[in-house]
Amino acid sequence: RDLSAIEFFPFLLCNVGTGCSILKVTSETEYERVSGTALGGGTFLGLCRLLTRVHTFREAMDLAEGGDARNVDMLVRDIYGEGEDRSGLKLPGDLTASFFARNIQQGRKKCPADDHDVCKALVVMIAQNLAQIAHLNAQVHGLRRVFFTGNFLRGNELAMRTIVYSMQRMPL
C-alpha cells in the first residue's frame, strides 16, 4: 500500500533507546538522521543506579510510578509564588523551572525526597528534554508530525504521558 497517498510523510521519528536518534522520514524508502542526543534510557538507568538503590530498569520504573517529581524539582511557583504571574512571562506555576533543584534555595528545609521521587524526576527530566529536542528539530525541518519509538518507551507509560503533555504545550 502506498502510504504517501494519505499524506503521511514527511515526519520526524525519534527512536529512544540508550540515547536518541532523530530521523526525518520523507517516504517509505527515504530518511536521514538529522539529529540525536545521548539522553535516553541509558541516562535514566545510569542515574537511577547512581542516585538510588535500584539495579534494573523495571525496578526504577516501578519506583517512579509511586514518586512525586515535585519533591525533587523546582517549579516556576517555587520561584515566583502562587497566584498571579509575577514573572511577567505567563508561565504556568506547575512548569518545571529546574530539574533536581528543589533543595538549593537558602533557608528552605531539605525536601523529603526518596528513591520513588528521584526515579520519577529522572523520567520526567529525560522525557521533557526529549520532547523539547524533538519539537525544536520539527521546527527546524518544517515538520508537523513527530513520532516517538524505542525501547526506553516500550511499556513506559510515564515517559509517554510526559512526552505527550510536553509536546502539547509546544504547538508545532
Automatic annotation (TrEMBL):
<dbReference type="InterPro" id="IPR004567">
    <property type="entry name" value="Type_II_PanK"/>
</dbReference>
<dbReference type="GO" id="GO:0015937">
    <property type="term" value="P:coenzyme A biosynthetic process"/>
</dbReference>
<dbReference type="GO" id="GO:0005634">
    <property type="term" value="C:nucleus"/>
</dbReference>
<keyword id="KW-0547">Nucleotide-binding</keyword>
<dbReference type="GO" id="GO:0004594">
    <property type="term" value="F:pantothenate kinase activity"/>
</dbReference>
<dbReference type="GO" id="GO:0005829">
    <property type="term" value="C:cytosol"/>
</dbReference>
<keyword id="KW-0067">ATP-binding</keyword>
<protein>
    <recommendedName>
        <fullName>Pantothenate kinase</fullName>
    </recommendedName>
</protein>
<dbReference type="GO" id="GO:0005524">
    <property type="term" value="F:ATP binding"/>
</dbReference>
<keyword id="KW-0173">Coenzyme A biosynthesis</keyword>
<dbReference type="Pfam" id="PF03630">
    <property type="entry name" value="Fumble"/>
</dbReference>
<dbReference type="InterPro" id="IPR043129">
    <property type="entry name" value="ATPase_NBD"/>
</dbReference>
